[in-house]
């Protein structure tokens, strides 16, 4: 599933391609993707004639700002956007097509069909589900070591599932939680109440550093992820633990292991990351 760095990269690359493009028509071949309004034809009709002018990101969601509405899109497991010329035939996994007056098309492709789209009147999107339940943004001024400490001290969950909770901190997923915990030298099965102030500060710095480096490198192309221009990310080449089970830790040489924490596959160095 694309996480904050991948969604941020899609936002940045797609913004350049669709800015000021006016919608002539919308084709929807998988109506279940459209969650708001609950009628795909109403969704299509509302978009006709509107122009894209800006894209924002909130957690793992893209927010397309138009003249009158905001389109909130979640890529889920394998969703991707791309610009095409109309003479290029869409494949069977293309489920939503935005046809522009310029002749170009923005297409949404999703092999698993898990992606979602919500359309809200402009200004209402942040106060409605799914965006209204999201937690603090890691890149926002509100995400401080003190805020992180408060969030993790009040939960009874282990670090890994707590950091994955989008209602606490939004944008983090499996890859970057594993990487941030390794950098902070913290075990994913530790509890917030076991950490001291210095450990919380390490974790805070590690989250910011990991995400910043990942954004700078265009995200991680672990499976099918590409940005809005069809390019792969490169952060996967620098991973310390994620996906490296059986390989030597880059810090100490111990074999990286894969375990399950909170129902999620988790990668750790048993020497660098101790419980407690």
From TrEMBL:
Residues 2-115 form the Formamidopyrimidine-DNA glycosylase catalytic domain. DNA binds at residues 93, 112. The active site is at residues 2-3, 60, 264. Residues 240-274 form the FPG-type domain. It catalyses: 2'-deoxyribonucleotide-(2'-deoxyribose 5'-phosphate)-2'-deoxyribonucleotide-DNA = a 3'-end 2'-deoxyribonucleotide-(2,3-dehydro-2,3-deoxyribose 5'-phosphate)-DNA + a 5'-end 5'-phospho-2'-deoxyribonucleoside-DNA + H(+); Hydrolysis of DNA containing ring-opened 7-methylguanine residues, releasing 2,6-diamino-4-hydroxy-5-(N-methyl)formamidopyrimidine. Belongs to the FPG family. Involved in base excision repair of DNA damaged by oxidation or by mutagenic agents. Acts as DNA glycosylase that recognizes and removes damaged bases. Has a preference for oxidized purines, such as 7,8-dihydro-8-oxoguanine (8-oxoG). Has AP (apurinic/apyrimidinic) lyase activity and introduces nicks in the DNA strand. Cleaves the DNA backbone by beta-delta elimination to generate a single-strand break at the site of the removed base with both 3'- and 5'-phosphates. HAMAP family: Fapy_DNA_glycosyl. This is Formamidopyrimidine-DNA glycosylase. It comes from Evansella caseinilytica.
